Amino acid sequence: MDTRKVAIFDTTLRDGEQSPGCSMKLHDKLLVAGNLEALKVDVIEAGFAIASPGDFESVQAIANQVKTCTVASLARALKGDIDQAWAAVKGAALPRIHTFLATSPVHMQYKLRMSPEQVLQQAVSMVKYARNLCPEVQFSLEDYTRTEEEFSWKVIEAVIAAGAAVVNLPDTVGYAIPEEFGARIRRVMEHVPNVGNATIAVHCHNDLGLAVANTLAALRAGAGQAECTVNGIGERAGNAALEEIVMALRTRHDFFENLECGVDTTKIMSTSRCVCSVTGSRVQNNKAIVGQNAFAHESGIHQHGMLANRQTYEIMTPESIGLTQSQMVLGKHSGKHALKDRLAQLGITLSEDRLAELFTRFKDLADAKKVVTDADIEALARGLEMRPDAQQKVVFDRFLAATGNTNANVSTVRLKVDGQTVEEVAMGSGPIEASFNAINKMLNLHVTIENFSVSAVTANVDAQGECDLRVRHNQRVYLGRGVAQDIIEAAIRAYVHALNGLLEDEQRMTVNAATLAAASAGTGLV
Ligand code: KIV
Ligand code: ZN
Q1: Does the pLDDT value for residue 327 go beyond 70?
Q2: Mutate to test the pocket of ligand 1, among 147, 172, 204 (most ligand atoms within 8 A of CB)
Q3: pLDDT tens for residues 142-191?
Q4: pLDDT at 298
Q5: Spatial CB neighbours of 87, under 8 Å, sequence gap ≥ 6
Q6: Is the CB of residue 385 below 6 angstroms from any atom belonging to ligand 1?
Q7: Is 203 in the pocket of ligand 1 (CB under 6 A)?
Q8: Which of ligand 1's atoms lies nearest the C-alpha of 205?
Q9: What is the pLDDT of residue 309?
Q10: Is the distance from CB of 38 to CB of 266 less than 8 angstroms?
Q11: Residue 525 confidence (pLDDT)
């Protein structure tokens, strides 16, 4: 039987980013796009260009950076959206406009207030409009799984005739059941006369926990493109997880006989880690493929079987997703080279500056702990700011906290702000709050802190503490992460990390306002 290639369309940067708390900054998005390119996905949906100037900027930057994957921008089926999408992706080696319109009765009646005939006409005219700008156009029938089937066939046929190269049939609300969804896709293949002129795609949400199962059923039934996100992040319960689809196709190649995708599975783990790191949302320990326990064997019976023959309990190897077993223990005598090697095995690549910074923190940790584990190294890398200290406005230097359960908590924090050393002391209900109050005094900031959490990186009493938090200011949310052996220091580092994001944004907004003022002065506009 001939093999059939399935395209992997990654929407981590668009649908994934829409999930609460998963917003990413430009340099984070570029980092994720770089990982997706190394993973060899076919399409990167870089964002929704019309959504905001920031979204436009990041879609454009990704389009200019990525060389080997198609780069798509989402657009509603409206001329203005399509123009913006095209402006953002036209610099890409392989650009695509992805436009969509809802086709289910409930969406057409209550959201769009359009009749089915108007929807059909709008879909066709916007596909033609997009096609005049961009060589490759994808059209999505939003809420396809609640769309009346015969109407969906009419729309699919019409948009293919109008020039859509890909027609996506999303399970927008995560409503489908695998057998039913597979059967619907099979009927599309049978009833749409020109279906052979386009690729049928599916895009499944996980509200019933069936997104991956539905995607696989659709692929078997004839769909040629699977839309998914790394770690399954996305609106509500998320999207179909890329790593689960890809590893199911590979591990059960016998069942999915003729289906193949071009993903380099050994890059799965590093891409998953990168997405965790930039979104600040970790995957649950028992998450399939990329969870911390996905390849761990705890029970005696399992360990015995594994020792006798790994295949007793292992259907995929950890190496196949890029997880390597480290033989060498790292400690205080280990050099920079050994650390660099271990980072490479863990799929973490750092510039020389970042490596030097990480090495200093590694040495401090190795002085305090005999053995530095892979989890410690990963946490240290996660705790590094994306940019070196030298490029940060605020750099943490030291703190001294007086704490106890009988007296007030006081903390003195020393920072470098724009290279100048500043120090403040403040009180708080605990040493962390006291430290944050001292920082607020120095920076004259009033922010709200959300989702504050501190956890231990390993299970021992000498474990490092990892702090994640979110800072809200003027409707914007900034992610902070810090790692240190002392949990107060971890919290301070996380807070400073988030505040640097905020200050960078404010500076950008001031510059933008100044540029606008200069521009309008030049044109005589007020
Ligand atoms: O879930 C959905 O329907 C979407 C479309 C815009 C493709 O994300
Ligand atoms: Zn979606």
Answers
A1: no
A2: 172
A3: 999 999 999 999 999 999 999 999 999 999 999 999 999 999 999 999 99
A4: 64
A5: 49, 56, 60
A6: no
A7: yes
A8: 1
A9: 80
A10: no
A11: 35
**Residue minimizing CA distance to atom 2 of ligand 1:** 172
**pLDDT value for 526:** 29
| pTM score | 0.81
Q: Rounded to whole angstroms, how far apart are CA atoms 254 and 369? A: 47
* Secondary structure of 247-297 as H, E, C letters: HHHHHCCCCCCCEECCCCHHHHHHHHHHHHHHHCCCCCCCCCCCCCCCCCC
**From CA 178, how far away is CA 212, in angstroms rounded?**
9
CA distance 68 to 277: 24
Q: Shortest CA distance to 267 belongs to which of 38, 9, 10?
A: 38
pLDDT at 524 over 50: no
Q: State the pairing for strand pair 409-417/420-428.
A: antiparallel
The verdict on the CB of residue 172 being under 6 Å from ligand 1 is yes
What are the helix and strand counts (H, E) for the chain? Answer: 16, 16
* Percentage of residues of the chain with pLDDT beyond 90: 64
Look up residue 10 and give its two tokens. Answer: 């990654």
| Predicted pLDDT at 288 | 97
Distance of alpha carbon 294 from alpha carbon 315, whole angstroms: 11
Rounded Cα distance, 117 and 392, in Å: 55
